[in-house]
């Protein structure tokens, strides 16, 4: 089985145009970059209203399953994908109406969406991150009155970031520690 050879680059655009090299694993990517690397997935290029327009624009970069235009990329080249994203935020929750024998009103139209190319690549750890905005949790606590609507909208569109690294589980899902001996793990029924 062949692994995907992800580009090693400082940005998504550089990963498409002129990567430093290609590597399947972090160790190999670190050797190519000469330093530690971080795996990143970034939206690149313009937004397209339809999937067909995006497939036509990024022909040869993503797999195309349309009849008569089918393109299957080799496994090593599958580091790009098309993703559909919403332009505006989700509508507010609906309130029950209890009218004309109906409990709920007609649902609002779905949000308008666009198609963007998502590029996955290895970015050197010393390279400047693409989005360097404060984590939403910290920004809201410290400067809630200062944040405007545009800043809040930008914060909601950020990828989720953990507060601290997740700790590995020391016991299984169906195991428990004995109250009288916390060092002993027993199966839970």
Number of domains: 2
**What composes the largest sheet?**
3 strands, antiparallel
Decide which structural class fits the backbone: alpha+beta
The largest sheet has its strands arranged as 3-5-4
**Count of extended strands:** 7
Name the helix and strand elements from N-terminus to C-terminus, one letter apiece: EHEHEHEEHHEE
Q: What's the N-to-C terminus distance?
A: 40 Å
If helices are DSSP runs of H or I spanning 4 or more residues, what is the number of helices?
A: 5
Give me the Rg, rounded. 23 Å
Q: On the 0-100 scale, what is the average pLDDT?
A: 82
Q: What does the overall shape look like? A: extended
Uncertain runs with pLDDT below 50, 5 residues or more? Answer: none
Helix content: 10-25%
Strand content: 15-25%
Topology:
Elements: E1 6-8, H1 12-17, E2 21-23, H2 26-33, E3 37-48, H3 51-57, E4 80-86, E5 113-124, H4 136-143, H5 149-156, E6 175-177, E7 185-187
Walk me through the structure.
It is a single chain. With 189 residues, this protein is an alpha+beta fold. It folds into two domains: 1-130, no CATH class; 132-189, no CATH class. The chain is 20% helix and 23% strand. The chain has helices at residues 12-17, 26-33, 51-57, 136-143, 149-156, and strands spanning 6-8, 21-23, 37-48, 80-86, 113-124, 175-177, 185-187. The strands form three sheets. The protein has a three-stranded antiparallel β-sheet. A two-stranded antiparallel sheet has the order 1-2. The chain is extended, with a radius of gyration of 23 Å. It starts with 5 loop residues before the first strand and ends with a strand. The relative contact order is 0.17. The model has no long low-confidence stretch (mean pLDDT 82).
């Amino acid at each position: 089985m062949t692994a995907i050879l992800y580009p090693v680059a400082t940005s998504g655009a550089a990963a498409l145009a002129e990567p430093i090299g290609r590597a399947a694993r972090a160790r190999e990517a670190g050797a190519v970059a000469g330093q530690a690397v971080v795996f990143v997935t970034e939206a690149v290029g313009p937004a397209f209203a339809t999937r067909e327009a995006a497939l036509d624009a990024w022909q040869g970069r993503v797999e195309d399953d349309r009849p008569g235009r089918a393109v299957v990329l080799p496994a090593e080249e599958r580091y790009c994908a098309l993703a559909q994203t919403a332009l505006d935020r989700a509508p507010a929750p609906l309130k029950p109406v209890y009218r004309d024998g109906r409990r709920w009103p007609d649902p609002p139209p779905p949000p308008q969406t666009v198609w963007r190319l998502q590029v996955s690549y290895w970015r050197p750890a010393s390279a400047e991150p693409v989005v360097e905005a404060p984590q939403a949790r910290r920004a809201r606590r410290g400067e809630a009155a200062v944040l405007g609507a545009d800043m809040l909208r930008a914060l909601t569109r950020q990828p989720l970031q953990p507060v601290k690294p997740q700790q590995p589980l020391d016991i299984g899902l169906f195991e428990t520690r004995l109250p009288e001996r916390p060092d002993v793990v027993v199966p839970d029924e």
